[in-house]
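Blackboard transcription, Thursday session:
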Amino acid sequence: MRVFEGLKFKRASTPIHRLDPRVKFLISCIIFITAVLFNELLPLLVLFLAQLPLILVARVHREWIQSLKGASIFAVMIFVMNLVVGYMSPTSSYTISFSLAMAVRFLVLIASFSSFFLTTSPDDLGLALEESRIPYEFCFAFTTAVRFVPVLANEAQTIVDAQRSRGLELEKGNFMRRVRNYIPILIPLIVSAIRRSLELAEAMESRSFGAKKTRTSLYSLRMKSIDYFVAILTFALFFFAVYVRMVVAIPRIEIFIP
Amino acid sequence: MIKVEAIHFTYPTGVEAIRGVTIQIEDGEFVTIMGENGAGKTTLVKHFNGLLKPTHGHVEVDGIDTRNASVAELSRKVGLVFQNSDHQLFSETAEEEIAFGLRNFGFDAQTISKRVEWALNLLDLVEYRKSSPFMLSGGERKRLALASVLAWDPQIIVLDEPTIGQDYQQKEKLREFITQLIAQKRTVIVVTHDVEFVAECRPRVILMSRGEVVADGPATRILTDYETVTKVSLLPPQVTQIFLRLSDLNLPSNIIDIYEARRLLSARILKAGLR
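(Written on the board underneath:)
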């Protein structure tokens, strides 16, 4: 559940927080695309470390590390899977560094979206979507989903506690057993999420949601010069990455098993 | 016996929910833990079966430090019933729900069916044995959650807010039920806001505020102490409030029981009538 910790927004006013949400989303998307462009360990590590200054400026490093810790189990799984599959194919000479690269790639993706959600308020996010002319119902559904992530995370923790108090041991048994251990967690969680969504729908309708077709909003987003600058810089770095991909031979980090 | 020694607990978010609590709960004792929202009541009871481990200090259950035992081992002794039964019900039938804990603790099939039968009877749920827990009413779900914990017969029973959303009759049944448990020498710990409910049961009361214990003692003393009670956002029971306002009539101010109140008042009226 720790992964969700890294998605909880906390209000703050750092240069990163004040950046236009669209620009921040652009940065996350560019990092995503760049991460997919490369499958060598070195550039992926660079991509990962390149995010550190942003995280430090935004002062969300603690939450960010939390979410990475939560995601690390999946990274380990990706590493192991790649290693196993790699060893089964005969042509693999650099399986370990490749598997490691895949795991790092996953962490890069988590890291970039975690930093986006940590520094962008759900209101800004909704506004950004609306001003991109996405129908309001969809924007609302999206912001609501984001808004309820921490609520659901809390609820999941309570359910885990309740079931552990009834002797459930999540870490017990073989792989299949462990998966089955999660049924007593998932059913109450899903049931309560559905119940909550019905209640929310009723509450919204009683406050006449969708009564008027055209909506106005109190705040509107405006790109400032710093936003344009960051956006252009992001694109420049992206084109540089594409250039590196197409032209430069990337040195491989070789890891051999003794 | 539960021994809590100078514990502090800080959540990963940085919130310090428990700030130096030392209490001891003897076997067979009936204790209620009261206090305002966010006082740390639920956080404290989650230490009793090891769900949370103190950041400082330590908690011992029957001489075992909770840090050295698994939640499952401790839960065998300390049955914790959560506030919202919807957070634990998941089985297809009420029977299955009760059997879940028993299976986890490794009881054999014969014992399981015997215990399920016993728990269904105990909480008046026999007619719903094959019903889905999700089709039961709120009060029934709460009873089922309680049955599913009592089924493995824990020595210490912790109930988190058992009276919320219950009508008067159900509360009355719950009170009788707790009395029964205590008669059987179980330790019962109840976390609640419900002053009237506590007043009728007359347990030991532990008042908490902002992660600290601010008062600890018999209900008759704690709940009639207007200043302390209001400090934790509670009010004394209604009978006590009446008696506090009648203090100029030379009536005692430590009354929490309606029957005792009636006895005192009728004696006084009788005396006045005779004069």
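Lecturer's comment: Chain A has a mean pLDDT of 85.
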